[in-house]
Specification:
Bound molecules: S-adenosylmethionine
Shape: globular
Largest sheet: 7 strands, mixed
Number of strands: 12
CATH topology: Rossmann fold
Helix content: 25-40%
Order of helices and strands: HEHEEHEEEHEEEHEHEE
Strand content: 25-35%
CATH architecture: 3-Layer(aba) Sandwich
Structural class: alpha/beta
Oligomer: single chain
Length: about 210
Amino acid sequence: MTLDALPFSPACLRNQEPILTLLRRWIPPAARVLEVGSGSGQHAIHMARHLPGVHWQPSERNESLAGLAGRIALEGQAGLAPGARVAPPVALDVTDAQWPAGPFDAVFTANTLHIMPATAVPHLLAGSARVLSADGLLLIYGPFRYGERHTAASNGDFDLHLRQRDPAMGVRDAETLQAEAAPLGLHLQADAAMPANNRLLVFQKSNEGRGQ
Ligand SMILES: C[S@@+](CC[C@H](N)C(=O)[O-])C[C@H]1O[C@@H](n2cnc3c(N)ncnc32)[C@H](O)[C@@H]1O
């Protein structure tokens, strides 16, 4: 596969730098990171080029794994930050009973919650809680609603577009997510405003609720 033939996300290109800025702040040096729904693999490559020592494990659903594997094979070795590694991607649907073994210091996912069915979101939270190390972080980037209200009219239009395409898709409610995460021991530590009306939600695992 050549670079031109690989899946490419313009949104990734726009948001990778603001995301990196926050990951530098949150992710400890030499962290083991599981990325859920890596898509084109651009985030995996970008973060591994800029986070020294990071061990980045990309993942995707089976049907989208080939393109991701193609990018990691082409770009996953050269130009990485000192000590950083990108592992060959693994198949992962968040509803799978079996997740990569971990433990991971962080689980990162970008723009996946509004694409996966609403019923899959609790699986994302539970799977993350299972594979995170003690004090591990779950970082979720994307658009969110608050009190069932969108943060911008454009997010409302996007939500409508998604729900028309598939009623199971849609922009998720941040408070609902927080309420579902807490019993799993994942507690919201930060909710950062990002460009283009997106957010980065940072949950941290604590001892209460572990093992669920
Ligand atoms: C809009 S793309 C985002 C891809 C990439 N993270 C990015 O920021 O460009 C949505 C991604 O969510 C993934 N996805 C949807 N449902 C999923 C599920 N049940 N489990 C894991 N990933 C899922 C899709 O395969 C797709 O790669």
